[in-house]
Amino acid sequence: MIVKNVIISKQIENSENYNKFIKIVREKNINVILVQAKEKIQVDNESHFEILWPEKKQLSENVLNNNSIVAKFIYKNFEMLFTGDIEEVAEKNIIKNNSKNLQADILKIAHHGSKTSSIQEFIEKVKPKIALIGVGEKNTFGHPNNNVILRLENMRHKSIKNR
After folding, report:
1. Could you list the mean pLDDT of each consecutive 10-residue stretch along the chain, which spans 163 residues?
2. Residue 139: CB atoms within 10 Å
3. Distance (Å, rounded) from C-alpha 8 to C-alpha 19?
4. Contacts for 128-134 with beta carbons within 8 Å, 24 or more apart?
């Protein structure tokens, strides 16, 4: 597979991994697209990504995680929210700036289901039918966090009661 474009957010902190990534991208002549909130990436005639985060003024707390791209993929009547590695502080900012645009059929749970993300208010705004958590078996971080699982279970029970 040939990669033609990579989509990233502006970085306010250099890291060794970021510098390696940029070097590889340049060596392979891959186009880099920098995005921020309120931009749209058209995939084809029927699908696109809406970039919800980061804002132009990025967060200074845990910058590599909290300035992850948060994007909503929209295909006809289907919506999926991708949340990167954001944490509570970013989730609160996203709620404040996008409260009417967060609902999605599928939610990719932020930061592997860590204890620092997936606050109740955020999950309630998204109202996912399905929540996905990407974790490695036997990971040393203890992901996903039990409280995140409980919040998702509570959301599921509320959903069943409201049918």
Report:
1. 89 81 93 93 96 85 81 97 93 87 93 80 92 80 76 70 54
2. 10
3. 13
4. 128/81, 128/104, 128/155, 129/105, 129/159, 130/105, 130/106, 131/106, 131/107, 132/106, 132/107, 132/108, 133/108, 133/109, 134/108, 134/109
Radius of gyration of the chain (CA): 17
- pLDDT of res. 16: 87
**Length of the chain (residues):** 163
pLDDT score, position 129: 93
Can you give the residue ranges of every domain in the chain? 38-161
What three-state secondary structure class fits 84? coil
Q: Which CATH number, 3.60.15.10, 1.10.10.10, 3.90.1150.10, 3.30.70.1320, labels domain 38-161?
A: 3.60.15.10
Alpha helices in 42-119 (DSSP H): 63-66, 88-98
pLDDT of 160: 55
